[in-house]
Amino acid sequence: MEEWINELQKWLKQADQLIHLIGEVPTVQFYVAIGVLLLTSVLYLLVLVLKRTKSNTIVFAGLSGSGKTVIFYQLRDGSSHQGTVTSMDPNVDSFVLHSESDKVGEVNPVHVIDVPGHSRLRTKLDEYLPQAAGLVFVVDARDFLPNCRGAAEYLYYILTKASVVKKKIPMLILCNKTDKVTAHTKEFIRKLLEKEIDKLWTSIKNCYI
């Protein structure tokens, strides 16, 4: 019991000394110190929040008729659309992927943006690239050859955008309609896209020489 009393007396003595020291600090300096402490705490919490806040936006791009919108609907609700679904306005929605809707436990939704592929509407892509966590470039594997040049130009346009280069946004090239008999293989599509992009890069580089 005596030990507890001695410890309490020591603590009270230290507290009294601390109060005495605080009383000797000028009022202005005291409040400045408190303000700095609070500001530091707020900034620290803000940094933690920003670090934890990550974009969940996935942007779909590609030529018109490549199948972006059909894939958008399939991911959202599993619906199977027949033929081509042409979009003149972006399809934007946040949802849990249909393939994960039956999973047990918490499943985070994704924010998916399907940008129209028409050449006059591609500028809308610039509005969504800064918030993108990932890009999906959709290619029609069945009708790839007649659209190879156009797909390569659009892909080159995306890859050279400052927002994509600066943020190093990961990109997936999705070969759609590969289940069709006349579809080209992903290796064939990759090689031709690389070849066309190399041509574009060479022609643009020569313009500055």
From TrEMBL:
Keywords: Endoplasmic reticulum, ER-Golgi transport, GTP-binding, Lipoprotein, Membrane, Myristate, Nucleotide-binding, Receptor, Transmembrane, Transmembrane helix, Transport. CDD domains: SR_beta (cd04105). Pfam families: SRPRB (PF09439). The chain crosses the membrane at residues 30-50. Belongs to the SRP receptor beta subunit family. It comes from Thalictrum thalictroides (Rue-anemone). InterPro entries: P-loop_NTPase (IPR027417), Small_GTPase_ARF (IPR024156), SRP_receptor_beta_su (IPR019009). GO terms for biological process: vesicle-mediated transport. PANTHER family: ADP RIBOSYLATION FACTOR-RELATED. It is a single-pass membrane protein. It is found in: Endoplasmic reticulum membrane. One of its GO terms (molecular function) is GTP binding. GO terms for cellular component: endoplasmic reticulum membrane. This is Signal recognition particle receptor subunit beta.
